[in-house]
């Protein structure tokens, strides 16, 4: 496979201890190195694939763009989903990891991206772990079959980017599509709770 097909900046950390791969999706203003320690904490035996978002908005790297109210510019989100899906397929062939054993792990912009990827291309993921997330699509309607998929949501009670109403809509939506949904809430804001990481590491070990 020509190397230029994987020209998107990314980190690949292979592991021979497990067939699982974590697809790490960073938040706004971060890069492909930002969530590596999170990935190792969630599943130290998994291989890790961590790509960089290709959008830039307000001087920050993102996977897709937002409006001022932090709702997704869905045209850019759909484009980002298709680009990431193609990258994931190429990376699987190039690095040789099992495409049926991939879990997307995201924070903020990357968490929205994980949810969108599962919605549009459920065949590419076992499930997602989403920190600081909300409903991905509002304007565009999708009805994927998520039977057998898992969705772990870890949000903060005071997170202005993940308001309760939109979070509840997202939960009901994933459940209506057949996914097994588990929700964790911490009392803080837009951040990752260490306690949630410990809980989710145990959950992933059983998945």
UniProtKB/TrEMBL annotation:
Molecular function, one GO term: hydrolase activity
Organism: freshwater metagenome
Claim: Signal is one of the keywords in the record: yes
Keywords: Hydrolase, Signal
Cross-referenced Pfam families: Abhydrolase_2 (PF02230)
Record protein name field: Unannotated protein
Cited SUPFAM superfamilies: alpha/beta-Hydrolases
Ranges of residues in domain Phospholipase/carboxylesterase/thioesterase: 10-204
